[in-house]
UniProtKB/TrEMBL annotation:
Residues 16-42 have a biased composition (Basic and acidic residues). Belongs to the Rieske iron-sulfur protein family. Residues 1-48 are annotated as: Disordered. It is found in: Cell membrane. It comes from the Bacteria. Iron-sulfur subunit of the cytochrome bc1 complex, an essential component of the respiratory electron transport chain required for ATP synthesis. The bc1 complex catalyzes the oxidation of menaquinol and the reduction of cytochrome c in the respiratory chain. The bc1 complex operates through a Q-cycle mechanism that couples electron transfer to generation of the proton gradient that drives ATP synthesis. This is Cytochrome bc1 complex Rieske iron-sulfur subunit. It is a multi-pass membrane protein. Gene3D superfamilies: Rieske [2Fe-2S] iron-sulphur domain (2.102.10.10). PROSITE patterns: RIESKE.
Length: 346
């Protein structure tokens, strides 16, 4: 009753308001554009000159950032240590940020302070263009160029051209510098894993016994002796493994006969799509998810792809146990790890 009473009161109030204000109009008149409010740079030549210098300075920041990218790439290469990689990435990222933020901020400041800000209404017209329309479009482009003041402000023109011309070098130089690097894609066909190599915890390097792996648990695994390698980071990037123990009754299939041990299976952590680390395990469904592009693999069925852009299963590492009960590899992976590349057919 209270709800009906409230609705009735609202309807009565609305009817009373309509009777007082009169009937609603069938259409509203177009109020048009608000009056143009000039900016400081429109009225004060000094302010316009200051804005010009500010925009030129921002383009200069972009130029310095691009030069910084080149210097960082040449003077601070990534190297083999974690510290050198961190320093190189930090300097490259900071310099590239300055290069991009300089161009972007300069363009926005130029548009807000110096370019024409008069609002223009353009009537709708048929999509088919006539010669007159094309000529009109060219005239509008010319008018826009005149409004931007680029022809009258040579400093801005030079600063913009310099920033835009140099900016691609910040991307091209690091790429060109890698042309002479190691392009041997066959290196992905082999990893540190070999017959008898123990599976150890990442990052401690502690060997793992089969009896310590409970059903449903997942281990991030690296090969024993990894830190003793000269280029151990590169070797780790290829050899990292995710190991899970399933109930043997839930194991539908594996990629090779006898490649698992009492429900314990081990697969490469490198996604077969673009190489992201696959490490999100869902115990109930036995699904392994790649966080980058959501490729999903069923580890109970040989890491078969069940969703996402990956085109092939994760390579399986054949495992068994040694005389002391430690989990060991039977061999290396039987297929290249990682994403597909131009020499791989699948």
């Amino acid at each position: 009753m209270s709800t009906e009473h409230s609705q009735s009161t609202e309807l009565t109030a609305a009817a009373t308001h309509r009777d007082v204000a009169g009937p609603l109009p069938e259409r509203f008149e177009n109020p048009g554009l608000e009056p143009h409010r000039p900016r400081l740079t429109d009225e004060d030549p000094g302010a316009a000159r200051r804005a010009t210098r500010q925009v030129a300075a921002l383009f200069g920041v972009s130029v310095l950032g691009t030069i910084g990218v080149i210097v960082a790439h040449v003077a601070f290469p990534p190297g083999d240590s974690v510290a050198s990689m961190r320093t190189s990435n930090l300097l490259l990222g900071a310099a590239l940020f300055l290069s991009l933020i300089g161009i972007g901020t300069a363009a926005v400041h130029w548009a807000k302070t110096l370019m024409s800000d008069h609002e223009v209404v353009e009537a709708r017209h048929p999509q088919k263009s006539s010669p007159e329309v094309r000529e009109g479009a060219i005239a509008v482009l010319r008018e826009g160029a005149e409004d931007s003041g680029i022809a009258r402000r040579g400093v801005l023109k030079g600063a913009m051209i310099s920033a835009l011309a140099l900016f691609p070098l910040g991307l091209a130089v690091p790429l060109i510098g890698e042309v002479g690097g190691d392009w041997n894609v066959g290196a992905f066909r082999h990893t540190m894993w070999k017959r008898g190599t123990r599976l150890t915890r990442d990052p401690s390097g502690t060997p793992i016994k089969a009896e310590d792996v409970t059903v449903g648990s997942a281990f991030h695994v690296i090969p024993d002796g990894l830190r003793e390698q000269e280029h151990w980071i590169e070797e780790k990037a290829k050899a990292v493994v995710l190991m899970v123990r399933l109930d043997p009754a839930d194991l539908k299939s594996e990629q090779g006969e006898g490649w698992s041990y009492d429900g314990i299976v081990a697969f490469s952590k490198i996604c077969t799509h673009v190489g992201c680390p696959v490490a999100l395990y869902e115990q109930q469904t036995h699904h392994l998810l790649c966080p980058c592009h959501q490729s999903t693999f069923d580890i109970a069925d040989g890491a078969r792809v069940v969703f996402g852009p990956a085109s092939r299963p994760l390579p399986q590492l054949p495992i068994t146990v040694d005389d002391e009960g430690y989990l060991v590899a039977q061999s290396d992976f039987h297929e290249p790890i990682g994403p597909s590349y131009w020499e791989r057919l699948k």
